[in-house]
Amino acid sequence: MDLISSLTDSFRSLFHDEPRLFCSPGRVNLIGEHTDYNEGFVLPAAIDKAIFLAIGPRSDNKLHIVAHDLGKTYQGALEQLEKTDTWADYLLGVLAQLKQAGHSFGGLNCLFGGTIPMGSGLSSSAALENAVGFAVNELYGLGLSRIDLVKLSQRAENEFVGAKVGVMDMFASMMSKAGHVIKLDCRSLDYTYAPIQMEGIRIVLCDSRVKHSLVSSEYNTRRAECEAGVRLLQAFYPSISSLRDVTMAMLDEHVKTANPHLYRRCAYVVQENQRLLDGVAALESGNVAAFGQYMYGSHEGLSRWYEVSCPELDILVDIARQQPGVLGARMMGGGFGGCTINLVQEDALSAFSEHITKEYFARTGKDTYLHTCKIQDGTKELN
Ligand code: GAF
C-alpha cells in the first residue's frame, strides 16, 4: 500500500473521521550555502521527497498527533504548547506562532509520514512546519499568504525549536514551482523562478549517511562569527548591516590581519554570494559546465574556509569530480553530514552511480544512498 493510502486508512481507524491530506516537499539548493542568514542569495527548489500530513479538526481544544514513521504519539492541549525536545516541537512551534499572532483555531487530529530521509540535509523539519501551517490555514480559513506561512515556519524553528536557521528551507518548500529553481534574495524576499534549462543533465543527491544535527552548536557559531565580522566592519562603515553589504576589499583592509579566523568565515560568505550571481548568469546563458565549476568552488569554500563539511562529504565530492559526465558537485545544506548535490549527464548516470557507491564504501566503509531528483511544486493540498 502506498504512503498516502496507508496514512488515510490509519487516520480513519484512529480518529473515525475523514482526513484532509497535505503534501510538503524537501528541498535542494544548487548554490548559495550559509548565505541566507547573511541576507544574501540562494538558489533552491523543492524535490520529489515530501512530508504527507493527514489532518482533521476536533470538537475540543486537544491535540492528538501521530508520527506514523516513528510510531510515536503526542497528546496535549492547545492552551499548553510547551517544548518537548522531540519531533513534536516542529508542529507545536507552528501552532504556538499562530496563536501568538492572534489566530483562532480549535483542536486537531493529525498523522504524518514521509519520504524525506531525516537528518540528510533535505529539510524534513521545514517541510513539516510548512505542512502544519498550510493545513491549519486551510482548515480554519485564517487567510494567511504563502509568504506569511514561510515567515511563520521560520519563527517556529527560531523561537520554539531553538535552531537559528535562515529562511531558505521553508521558502523553497512552500514556494517552489515544478521545473524551476528559485533565485531568492534573502534580504527582501524578492524572488524569481528560473526555468532549469539543463537538457540531458540530472540532479543527483548522494547521501553520506552521516547524520547532521541542525541544532548543533556549530551552525549557531557560524552565525555568530558572521555577525562579529559585521560588527568589526561597522566601525569603519557604519551603514553596513550584514555580510550582504560587505566586499572582499573591505575584508582585506580591515579584517584579514586583525582577525584571520573571522576573515576566512566572512570571505567565504562574500565569495559565495558572488559565485551564486555568476553561476546564475552562466545557467541563464546555458553554460552548465561553468555553473558546475562554481559548485566545486562553493564546496571548497565550505570545506576549507567555512569549515562545515566533514571527511565523508569531501570524499563524495572528490570521487564525483574525477568521474566523467559529472559537471559539478558540492555539499549541500547546513553541513557536517547529509548529502552532496551533483549535476550528472544522463548518459553517465549509471556509471556514476556504480562508481561512487563502490568507491565511497572502499574509502569510508559506509554505503551511500543515491537519489535522482525531480523539481516539484511547493506545499499543497492533495485531492
Ligand atoms: C540549513 C538552514 F536551515 C538554512 O537556513 C541554511 O542556512 C542552510 O542550512 C545553509 O545554507 O539548511
TrEMBL record:
Q: In which pathway does it act?
A: Carbohydrate metabolism; galactose metabolism
Which residues make up the binding site for ATP?
A: 119-125
All copies of domain GHMP kinase N-terminal, residue ranges: 90-176
Residue span(s) of domain Galactokinase N-terminal: 10-57
Q: Does the keyword Transferase apply?
A: yes
InterPro entries given for it?
Answer: Galactokinase, Galactokinase_bac, Galactokinase_CS, GalKase_N, GHMP_kinase_C_dom, GHMP_kinase_C_sf, GHMP_kinase_N_dom, GHMP_knse_ATP-bd_CS
The EC category is transferase
What residue stretches are annotated with the GHMP kinase C-terminal domain?
A: 281-358
- Which Gene Ontology MF annotations are present? ATP binding; galactokinase activity; magnesium ion binding
Similarity-based family:
Belongs to the GHMP kinase family. GalK subfamily.
Q: Please name the HAMAP family in this protein's record.
A: Galactokinase
The protein depicted here goes by the name: Galactokinase
Q: Which organism is it from?
A: Spirosoma sordidisoli
